[in-house]
Design a protein that fits this description.
With 186 residues, this protein is α+β, with helices and mostly antiparallel strands. The protein is built from four helices and twelve strands. 23% of the residues lie in helices and 32% in strands.
Length: 186
């Protein structure tokens, strides 16, 4: 079935009408409303935030130099995205304002995959992140217990590494520390 090209592109006002129990995004002019994350999804995201924020965002026991946020709203061109996590190098984002969203593309994003959003995350969102020159993307699958590490090269995503189960990983751009994957699924 072909998309209806006569339909008007979704607007931010359309997005604001979506009930709060959904994560609303505008991708390529289409409005997407996804249910809030399930428990395993939320656990994986929270575990990763915990592993990264101390050493990278706050500089405790690690190199610092990053701002790492959970579910920030990104306004990138006409698209509105909400990655599960996003990180900016502090030299690119030295301070945080009171704005409700970010217009500066992050340096790293992480999408925690859910069965209902996997194709959106892998196809639509990765294409937008590539267009906006986000240098690194991680795809975490809490059901399969995997972490895929991607790097943008020449406008295309390269799978740099795939990890699974309970490994301790050093993954770019955060290879300065080992991250226990068990923190994401346990």
């Amino acid at each position: 079935m072909r998309p209806d090209r006569t339909k008007r592109p979704a607007t931010y006002e359309d997005l604001l009408k979506v009930p709060d129990q959904f994560v609303a995004e505008i991708l390529d002019g289409e409005l997407y409303a996804s249910p809030r994350p399930a428990q395993r999804h939320a656990e994986a995201g929270a575990g990763l935030v915990g592993a990264l924020r101390g050493p990278f965002d706050r500089g405790r026991g690690g190199p610092g130099g990053w701002r790492i946020l959970y579910e920030p709203e990104l306004h990138l061109s006409a698209d509105v995205l909400v990655p599960d996590l996003a990180g900016w190098r502090r030299e690119r984002l030295p301070s945080i304002s009171n704005a409700a969203y970010f217009e500066l593309a992050p340096d790293w994003v992480c999408e925690v995959l859910s069965p209902s959003t996997v194709s959106i995350d892998r196809v639509k969102k990765l294409a937008i992140y590539a267009r906006e020159r986000v240098a690194h993307a991680w795809l975490v699958d809490p059901l399969a217990r995997t972490l895929e590490v991607l790097r943008l090269e020449g406008g295309r995503w390269l799978i740099v590494a795939t990890f699974s189960d309970f490994e301790v990983v050093r993954a770019e751009p955060f290879e300065a520390i080992g991250i226990e994957l068990s923190l994401l699924w346990e």
